[in-house]
Design goal:
Layout (H helix, E strand, L loop, with lengths): L1 H25 L3 E7 L6 E6 L5 E7 L6 E8 L5 E8 L15 E5 L2 E5 L3 E3 L1 E5 L8 E4 L2 E4 L9 E9 L1 H6 L1 E2 L4
Parallel strand pairs: 2-13
Antiparallel strand pairs: 1-2, 1-12, 3-4, 3-10, 4-5, 5-7, 5-8, 6-7, 9-12, 10-11
Length: about 180
Amino acid sequence: MELKMYRNKKGIFIVLAVLVVIGTLVIPWRYSLVLSSPETDKVFAYVPMKKGGKYKMLYTHSIHLKPVIESYKILQNGNIRQYELEYEDFAIGMPQNALPGEKFVMEDGKYKILQMKRDFRSYNLSVGKVRANHTLIWRDKKYPLSRFVEPGSIVRFSVERISLIEMLEGVNIQNG
């Protein structure tokens, strides 16, 4: 009788252990900035990022060939907010003033739009093929997007909880 109870407890323990392992693999738990394909949802790369986290996108403008820096932060509701824009030239495609509630300034020879509140659930970016060199800046380190995606492709930026399997499929941008 004791041997039968022991086998039942061992069986229950094994089933629970297997369920915990499977749950750990498939249940989304890691809050991250996710770079994925808008067509297939395939995760290219991710950045472990908490609410309140900030990052920047640096690229070379295709017309005036000067650097542009867009600053973003993750809001408590999981949306992404663009809160600042910095550039050096008023060429085509660059704003010449701020929207209501924003502040337009010139500092150190650069134009800046501050106090922006442009919120997105997600946004798509076409990664430049020729000279844009789109680069994500996080914690003062630069990560060229061409290391993770083919130049010319479209990448969706969103804030998601991702599972261990998705982490293994994509590249942790810190380690990529």
